[in-house]
Amino acid sequence: MSKSAIYPGSFDPFTLGHLDIVSRALKIFDTVNIAIGQNKTKSSLFTAEERKDQIEEIFRGNDRVTVTIFNDLLVDFAERLNIFTVIRGVRSVTDFEFEFQLASAYRATQPKIESVFFMTSDKFSCLSSSLVKEIAGKNASYLSQFVTPNVEKALKEKFSK
């Protein structure tokens, strides 16, 4: 029986912290579906399709990772895929409190759902997509410390306009 998990997020942009979580999750799960959620209340730098293309490029050749865009509730998406394990990264106690509330809500609406929390690696504990966008907007030369080369290129192109 294959063990699969969903790693949901906005991934705007996908960072080395996200990559670290996926890499570690693949030590436990046979497959990981990176699920790009579209949140109408958040303004995104990259379209969902651009993010999907960037993440697929990162995992090109790795058939254990799929990338999907979803618009519905995560519990409904999980039901459609028949995958009931959700991966979440946790950087801080504040993150944990928020993620704990989400996990409780998931289970209240879909009792099959289990959440698995990965503590962020120390070197990525302060990293967020918001921080990466701020750095990219300032044209900082050390962007490569936080994102893969293809995402760095896309960020530089986006902010050079």
Describe the fold and architecture.
The protein has 161 residues and is α/β, with parallel strands linked by helices. Helices cover 41% and strands 19% of the residues. The chain has a single domain, classed as Rossmann fold (3-Layer(aba) Sandwich). The strands form two sheets. A three-stranded parallel sheet has the order 1-2-3, sandwiched between helices. It has a two-stranded parallel sheet with strand order 4-5. The longest helix is centred in the middle third of the chain and has 17 residues, at 93-109.
Give the gist of this structure.
The protein starts with a strand and ends with a helix. It has one domain (4-125): Rossmann fold (3-Layer(aba) Sandwich). The chain contains six helices and five strands.
> What structural category characterises the helix and strand content?
alpha/beta
Instruction: Please report the total strand number as a whole number.
Output: 5
The name CATH uses for the topology is Rossmann fold
Rounded average pLDDT: 93
What does the largest sheet look like? 3 strands, parallel
Just give the CATH class.
Alpha Beta
Cα shape: globular
Question: Any idea what the CATH architecture is?
Answer: 3-Layer(aba) Sandwich
Given as residue ranges, the uncertain stretches (5+ residues, pLDDT < 50) are none
CATH fourth-tier homologous superfamily:
HUPs
One letter per element, helices H and strands E, the order comes to EHEHEHEHEHH
Count of helices? 6
